[in-house]
Amino acid sequence: MTANDWFSSPTDAVDRLHEVGYLADSATATTAYLAGALEKPLLVEGPAGVGKTELAKAVARATGADLIRLQCYEGLDEARALYEWNYKKQLLRIQASTGGQAWSETHDDIFTDEFLLTRPLLTAIRREQPTVLLIDEVDKTDVEVEGLLLEVLSDFQVTIPELGTITAVRRPFVVLTSNATRELSEAVKRRCLYLHLDYPDAQREREIVTSQVPGLDDAVVTQLVDVVVRLRELELKKAPSIAESVDWARTLIALEIDKLDEAAVRATLGVVLKHASDHARAVKELRLAAL
User: Fold this and answer.
1) H helix runs in the chain, sequence order
2) d(Cα 251, Cα 245) in Å, to the nearest integer?
3) Is 179 left (phi over 0), alpha (psi -120 to 50) or beta?
4) What is the C-alpha separation between 136 and 51, in angstroms, rounded?
5) What Å distances lie between residue 242 and 161, 168, 182, 186, CA to CA?
C-alpha cells in the first residue's frame, strides 16, 4: 500500500468510511485523505466521546490495515512506548557464555534483535504490512514523552543506540488523539495535520444512531437525540458520548421500549450518565415529567 492507496480522494474516504460504519463529514474525510496522501500524522482533538479513536479504527477497517494502539497515560515512558531490552534473557546469555569470551563479543551477542522487546511505536515502524498507528489520548502523558514522538512523527524512524537507526519501510497511517486537557507542544503540532471533532448536530447524530441501530423507530431516535443534546447543554461531569447515544438506542431495543417517556428515561438514564450528580441534575434540569 502506497501513500495514495489509503484513500484516492476525500469522496472515496467518505464512502469507504461509511461502508465500515463511520459517518465522516467533509472536513474529516478530507483530512483523513490528506493524512494518507501526504504521509503526515493526523492530530485529532476534541471532547471525549466524539469519535476520535473510532476514526483511527475505521481507517484501519476501511483500508484493510492492521491497527496498533499506544494508549497514553501519566508515567508512560520509553520502555512502554518504544522498546526495552529483555534483561532476564540477556543475563542468561551472559551466564551461559564461555569464560574465555571477551566482553565486546558478549556485548554484541546480547544487543541483537533476539533480545529486543518492541513496543507500539517501534512495532509500527518496523512493520512491512499496511498499519494504522493510534497514539490515543496523548495529552494524558507527561510533556517529556512528546520528545519520544518527535523522531517518529518527523522521519518515521527510531534510533536505538545499540543497533542504530531503524527507518520505516512502509510508513504507517498515524492518528494522535487528544481531549485537550493540556496544550501539546508546538513541535508536535507542526509535524501533524490537525482536525477538531465536536459533538455532531442533531441531524448527524440521528443518522449515526440509525446506521448503528437500524431497528429503532425514527420517532424514538428523534426523542433520544433530543434528550442527549439537552443533556450536553448541562454542566455535567461527563457529557454523553456518541457511543453512549448508540448504547442507549440498543438498550431501548433490548427493553422493547417504543416511546421515550418519563418512565423510560428514568429507567435507562444510567446508560448515558455515569455520575450520580449528573443523574440528579438531569432529572431536575430537564424536568423529566415533561418529556
Assistant:
1) 10-19, 26-37, 52-63, 78-81, 87-96, 103-110, 120-126, 145-155, 186-190, 202-212, 218-232, 242-254, 262-268, 276-285
2) 10
3) alpha
4) 12
5) 44, 35, 23, 30
CA distance 104 to 182: 46
Give dist(CA 129, CA 187) in Å, integer. Answer: 28
User: What size, in residues, is the chain?
Assistant: 291
**DSSP category for residue 272:** T
Highest mean pLDDT among 67-71, 74-78, 122-126, 150-154: 67-71
pLDDT at 132: 97
CB of 212 closer than 8 Å to CB of 246: yes
Task: For residue 132, give the C-alpha cell.
Answer: 494504522
Is the Cβ–Cβ distance between 120 and 68 less than 8 Å?
yes
Handedness of CA 222, 223, 224, 226 (dihedral sign): positive
CA–CA dist 192, 175 (Å, integer) = 9
Q: Provide φ and ψ at 8, rounded to 5°.
A: -85, -20
pLDDT in tens, 69-119: 999 999 888 888 888 888 888 788 777 766 656 655 666 677 878 888 889
Residue 124 makes CB contacts below 8 A (sequence gap 6+) with 68, 131, 133, 168, 172, 174
pLDDT tens digit string along 172-207?
999 999 998 899 999 999 999 999 999 999 999 999
The residue type at 221: V
